[in-house]
Design brief:
Strand content: 25-35%
CATH architecture of one domain: 3-Layer(bba) Sandwich
Largest sheet: 7 strands, mixed
Mean pLDDT: 93
Low-confidence stretches: none
Distance between the termini: 22 Å
Helix content: 25-40%
Strand order of the largest sheet: 8-7-17-18-19-16-20
Radius of gyration: 22 Å
Structural class: alpha+beta
Shape: globular
Number of strands: 21
CATH class of one domain: Alpha Beta
CATH topology of one domain: FAD/NAD(P)-binding domain
CATH superfamily of one domain: FAD/NAD(P)-binding domain
Number of helices: 12
């Protein structure tokens, strides 16, 4: 135990908080610096239907060992709900169930031969493919070659286009390996169980903050890092809007282009490398309605002409009784700096989203809508383009005492709370802490840059 060692963690999102928890368990002196008025990042919630709900939809999987460990360690595992998660495809103006091999066989947009190719290629990517060999292979090229034109045009191209937009042609098939492995490994006999925390992820956040008080972990909000303080070519402190903070180690969990701005005066070349990593933004329009909208939890919108790619009906996973009888729907959309939505005002975005919603569900009346909320972030996920693994920075930076454990280290897996915990565990190990008590399961995160 290194009770005299001090670590300063820059960023109070899930990665930063998980790292603070691991450091606290190692008996380090921990300070977390958060630029905004509250920690939580993409975990943050608001009140709806008499309870709390995340700004951006969240669920987890039965095989998310790292997150399940954290919830158990925080003594809130009794709040975990595992419910049947259902998926659908909206194609050619119709909703198709898409949960089992039988559903795939009933999916009319594909021929019988296409259905076989879809099944074989999906299983190959999820179970047998080595993602390391696929980092330079464009996903669409691979799908057209091996899954075929019918499968790619009906399923994969619409999904990749709506998620990645301008970058759709540059997405490597390795990213799809992580995505499919996550989903297929959570299924048993065609049924998928998805996890959610009763009362929302604010329960985990509250439990962490309570534990931090016992660990004497210091949380400092409104503390934007303004300058790195160097001595003998080593980082010894940071200057913030809330004062100066000294430490033996410094861990950055913030978006890498934000960190680049801080590093510029110290190492301009390294800052330039960090700026090569681009980020997608995300917008979620959350609709509170009086009635059920669709028969599935997660609806992929594969037809063109809609401003969102996913319709996530929260109350098809967590029953409406948890929200005083209201039905809750997310309309999800990723965007890049090349998209019009990047510069749109929230009111304009909401109008566009709601017009698409009423187009998709023409039987829904405006009188069925109780209230509409909209949340937007410009740093929801990294742009994982070709050879992205070469862009992922080393967790031990070239600046002495500075470490990085951020969203790029989740690649080739999908952004999630579980994978953020895995990244936190790996970077803590690199710093010199014991993180062996954090279990490992199927996460592909935290394998690059170590």
């Amino acid at each position: 135990m290194d009770k005299n060692k001090k670590i300063v963690i820059i960023g109070g999102g899930i990665s930063g908080l998980a790292a603070a928890y691991i450091a606290g368990k190692n008996n380090w002196d921990v300070t977390v610096l958060e630029a905004s008025s509250a920690v939580g990042g993409l975990l943050n919630t608001f009140e709806i239907g008499g309870t709390k709900l995340e700004f951006f939809y969240h669920h987890f999987f039965t095989h998310d060992a790292e997150l399940l460990w954290l919830l158990k360690d925080l003594n809130i595992e009794n709040k975990i709900l595992f419910e049947k998660g259902t998926m659908g495809f909206y194609r050619n103006g119709k909703i198709y169930d898409f949960n089992s091999p039988q559903d795939v066989l009933r999916f009319k947009p594909l021929s019988y031969a296409d259905k076989i190719r879809f099944g074989l290629t999906s299983v190959y990517l999820a179970k047998f493919c080595k993602w390391e060999k696929m980092d330079s292979v464009p996903a669409l090229d691979w799908f057209y070659k091996f899954a075929g034109k019918g499968v790619t045009d009906a399923i994969w191209k619409p999904m990749i286009d709506v998620k990645f937009g301008y970058y759709a042609k540059d997405v490597p098939i390795s990213w799809m390996v992580g995505r499919l492995a996550q989903r297929l490994n959570s299924r048993k006999e065609g049924e998928e169980k998805l996890g959610y925390l009763k009362g929302s992820l604010s329960e985990m956040l509250d439990a962490l903050l309570m534990t931090f008080k016992q660990m004497k972990v210091k949380i400092v909000t409104n503390a934007k890092v303004e300058k790195l303080q160097m001595k003998n070519n080593a980082l010894v402190g940071v200057k913030t809007s809330q004062g100066d903070f000294k430490g033996d180690a410094f861990l950055s969990t913030i978006p890498t282009h934000f960190l680049a701005g801080i590093i510029d005066p110290v190492n301009k070349r390294y800052a330039g490398k960090l700026r090569e990593i681009e980020y997608f933004g995300a917008v979620c329009t959350i609709i509170e309605t009086k009635k059920k909208i669709s028969p599935v939890y997660w609806l992929n919108v594969a037809d063109q002409g809609y401003p969102f790619g996913g319709v996530i009906e929260q109350t098809n996973l967590v029953p409406p009784k948890n929200y005083n009888g209201s039905h809750i729907i997310y309309l999800s959309r990723y965007f890049s700096s090349h998209d019009d939505i990047f510069t749109m005002e929230k009111k304009q975005i909401q109008k566009v989203m709601m017009n698409g919603f009423f187009k998709l569900f023409p039987r829904v009346k405006k009188s069925d809508i109780k209230k509409v909320y909209l949340f937007k972030t410009n740093t929801a996920a990294t742009v994982c383009d070709l050879n992205f693994s070469k862009k992922v920075p080393k967790m031990k930076s070239p600046i002495k005492n500075l470490y990085i454990g951020a969203m790029p280290h989740i690649y080739p897996d999908e952004r999630s709370c579980n994978n953020s915990v895995r990244v936190a565990a790996e970077v803590c190990r690199i710093i010199g802490m014991d993180s062996s008590f954090v279990p490992k399961n199927q996460s592909l995160s935290g394998k690059i840059g170590i």
